[in-house]
Amino acid sequence: MRAVVVHGPGDVRVDERARPAPGAGEVLLAVEWGGICGSDIAYWKRGASGTASLAHPLVLGHEFAGRIAALGDGVTGLDVGQAATVHPASLVGDGVLPERLAGRTNLYPRVRYFGSAAFDPHTDGGFSEYRTVDAAQIRPLPAGVGTEQGALAEPLAVALHAVGRVPELRGRTVLVNGCGPIGSLVVAAARYRGAGRVIAADLSPSSLAVARAMGADDTRDLSAGERLPEDVDVVFEASGAPAALGPVLRATARGGTLVQVGNLPGTAVAAALGDLVTREITWIGSYRFVEEIDDALRALGDGLDVTPLITHRFPLERAEEALAVAADPDSGSSKVMLRMGSA
């Protein structure tokens, strides 16, 4: 079978690998679609994502879906041919969390994630024609949801987790700063959760067009000198740019809530944070998700349309070109999809 394998910085190849067979408790997934994420780009460009660095070749991809091709011994409740996506996280160890973190498995200290070099041996991802998956990580797709949309359940889960960090959005005004794929999905998730008005802001007109298609009522083109709105009840910062923090805090209403969705640098940065104190803003972090992938699938089954997010599609053999398009801020791309097999 073919797989998209990163061998080092700037070195991604479509390699031939043996087709795997499912062991006991496993499922063989014939992968049809995968979505390129920022971590895939980071491994390709730098050989590292966050604090995880490549020690040996890694199959990329944690956003993927396909159809069940075979069942290992002991697997019940699933059928060959069934369309499915995966929950890409699995806990390493006993899974016990302190009481204050009960149920928040996204904060467990040791988690294997598909397409990640955080452990050695690394955890290969799903950018391959076939992938064995623990049956507990399989999530069947609802009726009427195709595998291309199913591949986007993982990033939609990230957005739904972020929106869920605010207890009640119904009827409230929301600002989303940064309209890359996750920011645009936060727009859709906020709308799905009943936000009254959603404003989206970005430096890219093409990203703002995607945000509008995903449900934004109003957009602010920061590259054209437009300013963020004032006194917004709930703000989602999805750019991860330290320079954005000052203006975003100023846009948040006194006593309002700011949810940090975009990953901030792990090194020292300059940022204007004074309004955090003087405006008594509640600043909340949001990291991955727990079981919101199930919520994402329900939302897709309810008719939430994420296809406006998809701007480019490439076949597996053009994976390097797909990564380059996804990484290029001038390409006009939002979510770039790879077609692994028949869909």
Automatic annotation (TrEMBL):
Cofactor: Zn(2+)
GO molecular-function terms, A-Z: oxidoreductase activity; zinc ion binding
Keywords: Metal-binding, Oxidoreductase, Zinc
Domain Enoyl reductase (ER) span(s) in chain numbering: 8-338
InterPro entries in UniProt: ADH-like_C, ADH-like_N, ADH_Zn_CS, ER, GroES-like_sf, NAD(P)-bd_dom_sf
Family from the record: Belongs to the zinc-containing alcohol dehydrogenase family.
Protein name per UniProt: L-idonate 5-dehydrogenase
Organism (species): Streptomyces dioscori
